[in-house]
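In the design runs reported in the main text, the only information available to the sequence generator was the tokenized backbone. The following block is the verbatim input for one such run; it is reproduced so that readers can re-run the procedure and compare outputs position by position.
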């Protein structure tokens, strides 16, 4: 989890020239024919992470609402 936080933090400070260099290396390493497949896989992975995150948030909200229904005054 810390690695993901650090990675997202680094992404905030990447400028235009750095992005171009990264894209150049990606094209050189994978080739232009593999890039659409990589993008599709990345999109699917991002969707799965987002869905899992939303599911966890829903579970937390549901468990919090269950605790509000309990009467502790007795």
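Verbatim output:
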């Amino acid at each position: 989890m810390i690695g993901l936080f650090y990675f997202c933090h680094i992404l905030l400070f990447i400028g235009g020239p750095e992005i171009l260099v990264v894209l150049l290396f990606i094209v050189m390493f994978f080739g232009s024919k593999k890039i659409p497949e990589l993008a599709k896989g990345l999109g699917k992975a991002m969707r799965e992470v987002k869905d899992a995150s939303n599911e966890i948030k829903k579970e937390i909200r549901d468990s919090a609402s269950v605790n509000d229904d309990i009467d502790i005054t007795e």
